[in-house]
Design a protein that fits this description.
Length: 338
Amino acid sequence: KIDTEKQENLTADFASLGFSRSQSISAEHNRGISELLQAIDDLLLPPYAAPEIKHQTSNAKRPLAIAIIGRPNVGKSSLINSSVRSERAIVSELPGTTRDAVDISYRRNGQEFLFIDTAGIRRRGKHSSSVEVFSVMRAERSVRRADLCVLIVDLTMGVTAQDKRIAGLIQKARKAAIVVLNKWDLIKPKRNQKKMVAQLIDETRARLFFLDYAPVLVASAFTGENVVKLFTLMDHVQHAAQQHIGTGLLNRLLRATFAANPPPIVSGRCLKLFYAAQTSGKQDRRLQPPEFVLFVNDPRLLSEAYRRYLEARIRKAQPYPGLPIILTLRPRNETREK
C-alpha cells in the first residue's frame, strides 16, 4: 500500500527486519509491480546462460546459442521447425502460443546449434497478464544469453515500430544479428522477384539503420524457401568473428582517417589518436563482436557521429557481417600506468 512517492519513506522501517531485498508496491495503483516481477524473474533462472550452455570446458565445443525473437505471430516457431526439419516448436495461428523460452538442440554438418524459441515481444503497455510480463522478460533475457539473435519480421506488415524496439534490444546487448523477412510466400510476385527482394532488403536496412550490420534474408518458414540460407549466413558471421585486423594496418587506417576527416572541435579541443589495437578475434573462438581499443588524449571528445564514422571506416577494411563493432576509448595515461 505504498500509493505515493511520499510513502516511500515508510519502507525504511522494514530494513530492520533483515531482508536483503525489499520492493514497495501499490496493488491498487500498479506502482512497483513491474519491478517486483523483474525481481522475481531474476531469482528463477541464471541471468545469462542456461545450464545446457554454461561452464563448458571449451567454447569451440559448446553449441551456438541462437535466440529467435520478434513480435507475436511472425513465425518464430515455424522458422525453427523449418530449420531443423522437424515439428520441435509449437505452432499456432493464435499469437502468444509460446509463453516461455524453449531450447531446441540441433546438429548440422558436425556443428551443434541451440535454438531458443522465445515468446513474442509486445509493447510493455499492452501486457494483459503477469504471465505475459514474465514471458517478455524471458525473451529479453534470451537476447542476453544468446550468441546470435535472429530477428523475425512479418513481410505482410513490414518493419513496425515494435520491430524497431526489439532490434534496439539486440543493439543494446551488442549481439551478433541476422534479420529474416518471413512470409515471403504471401507476397511473392510472379515476376521481378529479384528486384522486389532487393527493394525489401533496402527498405529494411533503412528502417533498421542502427542494425545495419545485420544481413537480411527474405524467406518463407511455411514453404521452406531460403530457410537453409540462414545456416550459410550464420557460418559467415562465425567466420567474421574470428577475423583480426593487424595492429600496423589498423593504426595506418585510423591515422589516415583522422587526417582526411579530422574529428570535430569540442570546447576548443580536438580528439587525438595515439595508438589503436584490436582486442578480440585473433584467437577467440566465441562468436563475439570485434572490439578495438583506441588510446586518445580525452575520450570525452568523441562525438557519436564521429564514432559511427570510425566504425564505418573499420568495416570498409574488414566488413564483419552480422557483428557490431565496439570502440573503447582510453586516455593515453592508462598506457603509461601499465
